Amino acid sequence: MHRGFLLLGINTEEDRIKYSYATALSIKKCDKDAEICLVVDQGQIDMVPKKYQHAFDYIVELRFGNTAHQDGFHAMNLWQVFHVTPFEKTIYVDSDTIFHNIDIDLLFDCFKHTGFGIPAIAKTYRGSFINAGHESDLFEYEMHYKLPCNFNNLIYFDNSNQLAIEWFKMADPIFQNWRQVYANLFKEKRPPTFSKNILCNIVTHLLDVQNEVAVYYNQLYDLNLKDQQLWNKDVPSAWTDMLNYWITGDQKIQIENHQINSGVIHYRDDNFVDEELINVLSAR
Fold first, then answer.
1. CATH of the domain at 202
2. Residue 234, CB half-sphere, CA atoms under 13 Å: how many?
3. What's the number of domains the chain is made of?
4. Which strands form 252-255's sheet, in the order they lie side by side?
5. N or C: which end of the chain has fewer CB atoms below 10 A?
6. Helix, strand, or coil (residue 86)
7. Nearest residue to 280 (alpha-carbon basis) of 36, 15, 26, 17
């Protein structure tokens, strides 16, 4: 069974591939034999810095080109991952995610009952579950319009599964025409800009497959700051500006007084990935 992880590493004027590199290192730290594919824009394979290439088993190009070349929202290309993955069974991962002491076999086992799955639950850094149905900043629009509230930074799919085929087929026009989709669906209040998570939840809603795709994986952490159950509502956009955190070579990740012993951590804050973290992840 050929399985692996896939990351969108489309570069811009900033070095965004660095974050995919950190994700890949963290996966390899959990399982040195895990296979990872980096997806880049057409004609850009040679632009991947050589110092990063060792972390990826495959580097492939977008089959249909960068459909976000005008907007700059590179997650618009999510629909293409189905067409370029080299694996039979794939877990797509957002590049602002790290894996910490994760059993990769158990992770895939959590999705084995389905050919297409998306996590429906996630934890705060404190270890409590995010309440997506009650005053959630992350799911403000989903709750208002009664859409699914899934955490789409992880998406599992089997290339031979009919639901996976249908989901990515629907995602193609939804992602490429996201402004029109917003205008048609959101009449009372509308997201201010492109949101991959909202658009994924729209796709699941339009196909009416929430019960089929929801996976209750209890080791996913989402560090959207306003959903961390903080008493103070006046919070900065970057959680690293507010919360103390430590990352050490003994595989310890601690935020304030709470230690994350094991988890897939959607950290959402570019400041989290610095040379210290890269060195910890690179250490054997």
1. 3.90.550
2. 0
3. 1
4. 245-248, 252-255, 258-260
5. C
6. coil
7. 26
